[in-house]
């Protein structure tokens, strides 16, 4: 797998570094982190450009982002109407030459619970689920109506969804509560995630090819927050 390197940010704090290191370790041990996404997590969290600040910039106080597409391609309307999620912050990058795309969203439910959602697309020489994660026994096949070619799987608690394309690319969606270590998600999210994931399956490969090179981008920007 090709690893896309992100520029390091000079905005580190000891708390951010500790939280980021623990989060990357937690996700890696549970088989959720692809190499490129691990680098994005490190840039966002370990380098101090943290999603999860307290006070004036905490998730609960940030206004919803009104853009039609977040991370360039993710449908904000679907997040609002199908999943009842409001995006308040996101980071992403894209490499057409590297055939990879990474996105991290901070979202709030209407009940005020903050979640982090990560989306990763990149080359993957795999033929079966056990080639992708050692947690494969906790997954079930995911079928997309009318979708020919490719294979999909969904974790039993719906926190993780995989799609392996016929051209040896892998799309991964992962959702967890922003409170460290709490991975439970609501029934409303579970019901809506497969349909949302289907949109990503259809849209992200073409976006990755056509969008060119997009360096690490944060919305709202650090200066704006």
What features would you describe in this structure?
With 225 residues, this protein is an alpha+beta fold. Helix content is 26%, strand content 28%. It contains four helices and ten strands. It has helices at residues 14-29, 35-46, 76-81, 187-210, and strands at 69-70, 74-75, 85-95, 100-109, 114-123, 139-142, 151-155, 160-164, 169-177, 214-219. The chain has an eight-stranded antiparallel β-sheet with strand order 6-7-8-9-5-4-3-10, with helices on both faces. The protein has a two-stranded antiparallel sheet with strand order 1-2. Strand 6 (139-142) and strand 7 (151-155) form a beta hairpin. Helix 1 packs antiparallel against helix 2. The longest helix has 24 residues, at 187-210. It is globular and about 45 Å long. The model is unreliable at 1-23, 28-33 and 45-49 (pLDDT under 50).
What is shown here, in short?
This protein has 225 residues and is α+β, with helices and mostly antiparallel strands.
Please outline the helices and strands.
Layout: H1 14-29, H2 35-46, E1 69-70, E2 74-75, H3 76-81, E3 85-95, E4 100-109, E5 114-123, E6 139-142, E7 151-155, E8 160-164, E9 169-177, H4 187-210, E10 214-219
Antiparallel strand pairs: 1-2, 3-4, 3-10, 4-5, 5-9, 6-7, 7-8, 8-9
Helix pairs in contact: 1-2
Q: Which terms summarize this structure?
A:
225 residues; alpha+beta; 8-stranded antiparallel β-sheet; two-stranded antiparallel sheet; 26% helix; globular
